[in-house]
Amino acid sequence: MFESPVMLPEPPIVSVVIPTRDRPEAVVRAARSALAQTLSPLEVLVVLDGPDPETREALLALGDGRLRMLELPESQGAANARNAGIAAARAPWLALLDDDDLWAPQKLERQLACDPTADEIVACRLLYRSASETFVAPRRLPEPGEPLSEYLFCRQGWFKYEGVLQSSMLLAATSLWRRIPFREELRRHQEVDWALRAVAEAGARVRWVDEVLGTWDVAAAGPRVSASSDWRYSFDWIRDARSRVTRRAYAAFVLTRVASRAAEGREWNAFPSLLREAFRAGGVRPKELLLFFGLWFLPHGLRRGLRQRRTDRESRAAD
What we know:
By secondary structure, this protein is α/β, with parallel strands linked by helices. Helix 2 links the parallel strand 3 and strand 4. The chain folds into two domains: 2-220, Spore Coat Polysaccharide Biosynthesis Protein SpsA, Chain A, CATH 3.90.550.10; 228-318, no CATH class. 39% of the residues are buried. It has twelve helices and ten strands. The termini are far apart. The strands form two sheets. The protein has a six-stranded mixed sheet, with helices on both faces. Strands 6-10-7-8 form a four-stranded mixed sheet. Helix 8 runs antiparallel to helix 9 (247-264) and helix 9 packs parallel to helix 11 (286-297).
């Protein structure tokens, strides 16, 4: 395992962990946005998920002593790379940054300005950008007393990304990241799984900085496991997580997140079983039920057009 030396004049306040593999141009942009933070001192730890000479050379060319590299001997996935970076971090606070995302310069400073405790996760908003739409995510923040699982999975509106926790949004104490590591066997739902376990097992709380402090650049991302239409994987995950979510959240996840993957693949055998599972769990609400039927029976183009009109209205309101 290769680890580059680091030259820091004083101990860092925040460690930034960026996992990557075979994406030198993207990770250099992400690393630059981390190195440009107004908060100082910090270290930026890029974890190469397996041998990656081209990315290593591109990062070395930045010539910044705050940048460290950890090159793993073989690729084992993003969760393993994140855990390796967390284990190697030297600062008391730690933030994750995906290699296709960017931060505003004040991101870390604004998050630490709210003076979090060691059992608090501090999240911010990001500008979600894909090839077809741009909007602020999450679309809303949690209401007082709203359970985290219901915030993430239960809809108040009709469109996705209403409640979101994405890795590039998050900052927490390094001790919390180490106490609740990412589950390396998961290939999807990693961030949400981590947050739900942190709340359930470590008593963590989520706080929000209500500012857009970066860009979630789906347009720049390569193919992702999360884009797959394998609904069974998501179904198995939520059943495993059932003790950490409310009945309403469980039913909502089945009727929207799981059903969207099944409907995308036109796997009609899933239609009755998912409907039965949601009602068996209890907590089914009319909105999620309507969304469920819409996923199966409204044409994709119509749903995309409705979503685009909503996005356009949000953009005009922001202007």
